[in-house]
Amino acid sequence: MDFFSRIAERRIIEAIQNGEFDDLEGKGKPIHFEDESWVPEDLRMAYRFLKNAGCIPPDLEIRNEIMNLCSLMNTIDDDKERLKKIRELNFKLLRLNLNRKKPLTFEDFPEYQDKIHKKFIP
User: Fold this and answer.
1) Structural contact between residues 85 and 69, judged by C-beta atoms closer than 8 angstroms
2) What does pTM read for this prediction?
3) CA dihedral 87, 96, 73, 107 (to 10 degrees)
4) pLDDT higher than 80, residue 35
């Protein structure tokens, strides 16, 4: 054990003896870890910091924007406005693909898999 680990361990033991951990929220309850298998291992800590700070990763932000645009396009009656939103959607899909370094697949949008399946496979 290195010098800093021993200091940290000693302070934790002192805090336990002083009862500083007795009134912590969630004491005695199991810890539920989130599934982070979709996040590359070297980015998991950074993504966790971003999440705790109320931020989301750029890929998820773009994905949410894509989902919102798809929902919005179903409500637009004006053809010019719809075309404008389609162009915006295509741009966001391109941005998402470039950031991901792998192509976008339908598995990435499970909420649309059934609709696509029904439309193309009778």
Assistant:
1) yes
2) 0.44
3) 130
4) no
